[in-house]
Amino acid sequence: MYEYAKVYEKAKVYGKANIYDWAEVYGNAKVYDDAEIYDYAKVYDNAEVFDNAEVFDNAEVFDCSQVYDKSRVYGKAQAHGFSQIYGNAKMYEEAQICDFAKVYDNTEIFGKAEVYGYAEIFENARICGNAKIFGGEVVFEDEREYGSAYIRGNAFIKNDNEHFGFDCSDLFNCHIHVYRSIDNEIVFTLGYFCGNMEEFEKEVEETYSGKISKEECNRIIEEIRTKLD
User: Fold this and answer.
1) How far, in Å, CA of 63 to CA of 68, rounded?
2) Of 31, 105, 126, 189, whose CB has the highest number of CB atoms within 10 Å?
3) 223 φ, ψ (degrees, to nearest 5)
4) Closest by alpha carbon to 150, among 129, 130, 136?
5) 3-state per-residue secondary structure call for 64-126
6) Are 93 and 74 in contact (CB under 8 A)?
7) Are 87 and 104 in contact (CB under 8 A)?
8) Distance between CA atoms of 123 and 132, rounded to whole angstroms?
9) Is the dihedral of CA 155, 118, 94, 51 positive or negative?
10) Nearest to residue 95, comparing CAs of 4, 49, 224, 119?
């Protein structure tokens, strides 16, 4: 630790971690391994930054969030709740991640994008603009549970008109998420499945027969064509 950086309250900085410039680490936060916190960045509450992760500019990591591996959080980005950022993921500008959301692999979250709930963004996805990605809400009042949103592959989402989620089947709780890729292709995700429209129809027929009706599948496809075409 050097220059004007501050570590106070019950915060801990150890290993080969570096805190410098005007950065602050406080509360019960931990920064360790080879992590670096610098510029005007803040890490506080019960947050942890470790491995080779970096938090800088005016970024903030707080609550119980974890930033690790070789991930980067910068600009005015904020990570909070129980969120996790890892792999080679980057979050910057005014982006936010919170709740139990996860961002990893080579993803980038930027602009004023928000990722929350139990959503997972991974592989080479790009979420930006004013997009809001949400997954995993449980609404006890009407006993309806929504499945998690999974955004992956070469997704490129700039606003809320470029992705849609569908909770379907009263007998089988599942969540279908649809968005455009960086190649402008319509991509479907369903559980661990990820593919184009033709592959989605085949997946429903082979794997989800009796769980998602053909009528429901056709309804979703027609609705998506209307919204994304």
Assistant:
1) 15
2) 31
3) -65, -40
4) 136
5) CCEECCCCEECCCCEECCCCEECCCCEECCCCEECCCCEECCCCEECCCCEEEECCEECCCCE
6) no
7) yes
8) 18
9) negative
10) 119
112, pLDDT greater than 90: yes
Does the structure show a pLDDT above 50 at 170? no
Each residue's pLDDT tens digit, 197-210: 888 888 877 776 66
What type of residue is 108? E
pTM score: 0.82
Q: Residue 169 is which amino acid? A: S
| Local confidence band at 50 (pLDDT 50, 70, 90 cut-offs) | very high
Closest to 15 measured CA to CA, from 1, 33, 30, 31: 33
Q: Going by C-beta distance under 8 Å and a sequence separation of 6 or more, which residues neighbour residue 218?
A: none
Query: Buried (b) or exposed (e) across 72-99, using 16+ Cβ within 10 A?
Result: bbbbebbbbbebbbbbebbbbbebbbbb
